[in-house]
């Protein structure tokens, strides 16, 4: 479909964004549905974040995704935030509707759907979450509903704060714990890296934690999708773990965001295929 005066604009806000597959998969979904939208990526530094919402309203942008490092800081510029995103404390999706910027979070749902492709229904699992940023908040919130969680971070105070916030918001006092990076990993069914360690272009780094004591049959997930096999997953494969990169989460969270903006369900197969076709 040609761009014309009625084309609605969607986008990605982050820093950096040149590694992102989001424009590829969203524009593939748009073309597949035959609707008059386009999706672009915008590299926005921290000092310019305050102007994003006003600019989006002025240009009548339909909505946008938020990625690293703005998922928490964007919240103070929004008019409304849905209950789950408030509880998570981070936003990855914004819809502009009737002059208001409304924040949502689809990351946790996306991660859960991606994991369940490999594990089946996720319930009563012992899960280790590495990191306490915006991505961790969403994934932890969703997975803690029916599983036991341990959140670890280089800065243990940040892990403690997130653990206590989630325990309070989900009313689960005994199933969410925290620690530092020296945790014993042998009892975890699932280990998830939510940090950017190993993300393009800084790929030649050490894994965020060693995995030599990993439980047999454990599943290791990394939210990074560029490269497709980040250093953390390479380490996991060495010790016989099942692995999941960030493509599945990217696609599923994007599909939920897309439906929020356009009111239509995109074909996740089309979105995945578009990414795979553009991977060198």
Automatic annotation (TrEMBL):
Q: Which InterPro entries match?
A: Aminoacid_DH-like_N_sf, NAD(P)-bd_dom_sf, SDH_C, Shikimate_DH, Shikimate_DH-bd_N, Shikimate_DH_fam, Shikm_DH/Glu-tRNA_Rdtase
This enzyme catalyses: shikimate + NADP(+) = 3-dehydroshikimate + NADPH + H(+)
Q: Does the keyword Oxidoreductase apply?
A: yes
E.C. no: 1.1.1.25
- Please provide an example of a Pfam family that matches this protein in its UniProt record: Shikimate_dh_N
**Record bears the keyword Protease:** no
Give the residue range of the signal peptide: none
Gene Ontology MF terms in the entry: NADP binding; shikimate 3-dehydrogenase (NADP+) activity
Q: Where is the Shikimate dehydrogenase substrate binding N-terminal domain?
A: 12-94
Q: In which pathway does it act?
A: Metabolic intermediate biosynthesis; chorismate biosynthesis; chorismate from D-erythrose 4-phosphate and phosphoenolpyruvate: step 4/7
Q: Which residues bind shikimate?
A: 20-22, 67, 92, 107, 225, 253
Quote the catalytic residue positions.
Answer: 71
- Top EC class per UniProt? oxidoreductase
Could you say which residues bind NADP(+) here?
Answer: 83, 223, 246
Q: What does the UniProt keyword field contain?
A: Amino-acid biosynthesis, Aromatic amino acid biosynthesis, NADP, Oxidoreductase
SDH C-terminal domain sequence ranges: 246-274
Q: Which residues form the Quinate/shikimate 5-dehydrogenase/glutamyl-tRNA reductase domain?
A: 117-195
Query: Could you give the subunit structure recorded for this chain?
Result: Homodimer.
Family, as annotated = Belongs to the shikimate dehydrogenase family.
Query: What is the purpose of this protein?
Result: Involved in the biosynthesis of the chorismate, which leads to the biosynthesis of aromatic amino acids. Catalyzes the reversible NADPH linked reduction of 3-dehydroshikimate (DHSA) to yield shikimate (SA).
PANTHER family attached here? BIFUNCTIONAL 3-DEHYDROQUINATE DEHYDRATASE_SHIKIMATE DEHYDROGENASE, CHLOROPLASTIC, SHIKIMATE DEHYDROGENASE
User: What is the name attached to this protein's record?
Assistant: Shikimate dehydrogenase (NADP(+))
Origin species = Methanococcus maripaludis (strain C5 / ATCC BAA-1333)
Q: What is the lineage of its organism?
A: Archaea, Methanobacteriati, Methanobacteriota, Methanomada group, Methanococci
């Amino acid at each position: 479909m040609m761009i014309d005066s009625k084309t609605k604009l969607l986008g990605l806000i982050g820093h950096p964004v040149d590694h992102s597959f989001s424009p590829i998969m969203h524009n593939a979904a748009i073309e597949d549905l035959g609707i008059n939208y386009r999706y672009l990526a915008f590299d926005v530094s921290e000092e310019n974040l305050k102007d994003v919402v006003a600019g989006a309203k002025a240009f009548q942008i339909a909505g946008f995704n938020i990625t690293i490092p703005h998922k928490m800081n964007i919240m103070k510029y929004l008019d409304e935030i849905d209950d789950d995103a408030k509880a998570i404390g981070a936003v990855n999706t914004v819809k502009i509707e009737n002059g208001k910027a409304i924040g949502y979070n689809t990351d946790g749902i996306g991660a859960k759907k991606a994991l369940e492709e490999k594990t089946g229904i996720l319930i009563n699992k012992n899960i280790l979450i590495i990191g306490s940023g915006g991505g961790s908040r969403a994934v932890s919130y969703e997975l803690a509903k029916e599983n036991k969680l341990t959140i670890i971070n280089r800065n243990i105070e940040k892990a403690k704060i997130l653990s206590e916030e989630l325990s309070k918001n989900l009313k689960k006092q005994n199933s969410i714990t925290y620690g530092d990076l020296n945790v014993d990993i042998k009892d975890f069914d699932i280990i998830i890296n939510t940090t950017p360690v190993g993300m393009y272009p800084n790929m030649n780094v050490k894994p965020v934690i060693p995995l030599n004591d990993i439980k047999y049959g454990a599943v290791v997930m990394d939210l990074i999708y560029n490269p497709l096999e980040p250093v953390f997953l390479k380490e996991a494969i060495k010790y016989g773990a099942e692995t999941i990169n960030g493509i599945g989460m990217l696609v599923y969270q994007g599909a939920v965001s897309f439906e929020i903006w356009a009111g239509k369900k995109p074909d996740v197969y089309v979105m995945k295929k578009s990414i795979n076709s553009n991977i060198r």
